[in-house]
Amino acid sequence: MKKFDIMTPIGIILGVVVLLMAVFSNAGPSGLIFFIQLASVLIVVGGLVSAIVITFSLPELKTIPKILREAFRTENHDLQKLINTFVDLSGRARREGLLALEAGLEDVEDPFIRKGVLLAVDGIEPDIIKDIMMAEVIAMEERHRKGRSVLEKAGEYAPAWGMIGTLVGLVLMLQNLNDPSTLGPNMAVALLTTLYGSVMANLIFLPMATKLTNKTDQEVFVKQIIIEGVIGVQSGQNPKILEEKLSAFLSDKLKKEELGDENDAA
């Protein structure tokens, strides 16, 4: 079950607050107006959007809202519960046979587990089952990579357009050196576009892309446990041996917690 990830908005808000505090501590609240420049916003945002539109196809652009939503969602994987699921399946398979597992799949929420167990029930060889399931994992990784590439490219383009805005501001400033009244506004455009581009890249786009990468890595890790569990069930491994094998994927902290629960139960 995916839930709203509060850490993403907290991180963005914290970054904005730190910047505002830096401005207020030196220039006061009235100094904030000097950091708002419409021309700089138009150059960075307009240029960034144009570059993204050129880089990606229309179907890829349509996935941007979904990609952004994923950066604000999280899913907690209960690895111990997952291991217990395969221990139970292994016990049933040894008692009643593999065909008996198909009847109980309605209670399994994860479609990846259901697919693997059904492949095992069909009597497919373990190596073939592993190849089929790994192909799905690889396809998932590729889909995720293409999705987050939009954020990664935005993180590359935003500072570049900030520099372009800086060049525009410098050109305007140099053309009007004889008019001192224009030096300030043109210099503001020159500097603020770089600021806007850097902030957008390093506070929003690149951190979100990294978060999506971490989520993909976590999903791949969970699917690896599932694949090993399915192979163990299909090969008729002893439930205790399968539990020990899958427990190798747990962190030391989770292993200690599980050991503590067993001691309490005893």
What are the key terms here?
266 residues; mainly alpha; 2 strands
How would you describe the overall organization of this protein?
It is a single chain. By secondary structure, this protein is mainly α. The protein has a domain at 37-79 and 127-265. The protein has ten helices and two strands. Strands 1-2 form a two-stranded antiparallel ribbon.
Compact summary:
The protein is an all-alpha fold and 266 residues long. It contains ten helices and two strands.
**Structure summary, number of beta strands:** 2
Flag low-confidence runs: none
Mean pLDDT: 87
- Given helix and strand content, the structural type is mainly alpha
SSE run: EHHHHEHHHHHH
Distance between the termini: 32 Å
Strand line-up of the largest beta sheet: 1-2
Number of helices: 10
Sheet having the most strands: 2 strands, antiparallel
Identify the overall geometry.
elongated
Radius of gyration: 27 Å
Strand content: under 5%
List the helices and strands and how they pair.
Blueprint: E1 2-4, H1 7-27, H2 38-55, H3 58-62, H4 64-71, E2 73-75, H5 79-96, H6 111-121, H7 126-175, H8 183-234, H9 239-247, H10 252-265
Helix pairs in contact: 2-7, 2-8, 5-8, 5-9, 6-8, 7-8
